[in-house]
Amino acid sequence: MATTLFLSTITTVAFPAFSRAMAGPTAVAIRATMQQAIRLMVFVGTPLTLGVILLREPLIRVLYERGLFTAEDTHATAAVLGLLVLGLLANGVSSLLGHLALALKATRTSVTVTILTQSAAIGLFLFLAPRYDIRGLALASAITPFILALLYLAALRRRVPRLIAVFRDPSLLVIGACGAVLTVAILFSMRVASSLPSGLFRDLATLISGAVLGTAAY
Fold first, then answer.
1. Which tens digit of pLDDT belongs to each residue from 24-70?
2. DSSP code for 168
3. Are 54 and 210 contacting, i.e. CB atoms less than 8 angstroms apart?
4. Are 101 and 163 in contact (CB under 8 A)?
């Protein structure tokens, strides 16, 4: 849901921007457009990632823990979700790079990168799942978009020289620092809410106070 509602919308808007940048005389316009898109992706994705990681247990309890869905199920689901969301930002960035490849009409490159990525994903699943059960599947799913992004960067480096430079953006360090502040704010709200009696009210208080304080701090 986080990917579809937030990160995919950025990719959708970025694609025509990439196409317009193709009309520019040099690769400078393409790099500038990609850098702006990545900056926005990281700005939106950082609080999503940190918020889900930190608040995943009360979030799952509020959404699902009733009837046959027990506290043990919540704990297991939270463990899986915490691993899955690690790949959220990489998923967004790899999607941007994939759309850049399409804008460059690098169809063969896209197909090759996809095949290599899926082959690596299968290898990760076969290696991690027997060792870490469902958590291994989640971890493999989180690692796969990193592989996809790296392969796209390697494949597109000739078409867009110095493409890797888009990640040398001081704004990304600022966003990282803001993410650290957000983390402190959410942890503080969780500590305060932990003094309330356990139950739905405490979970709701944790989620609402974490979202409000975290957003304000960010």
1. 656 788 888 889 889 988 998 999 999 999 999 999 999 999 999 99
2. -
3. yes
4. no
User: From start to end of 26-111, where are the E strands?
Assistant: none
CA distance linking residue 180 with residue 218, whole number of Å: 9
Rounded Cα gap, residues 53 and 32, in angstroms: 31
Q: Are 166 and 35 in contact (CB under 8 A)?
A: yes
Structure tokens at 92: 């967004």
Whether this model's pTM surpasses 0.70 = yes
Structure tokens given for 211: 């979202």
**76-110 b/e with 16+ CB inside 10 Å = b?**
ebbbbbbbbbbbbbbbbbbbbbbbbbebbebeebb
Cβ atoms of residues 139 and 128 within 8 Å: yes
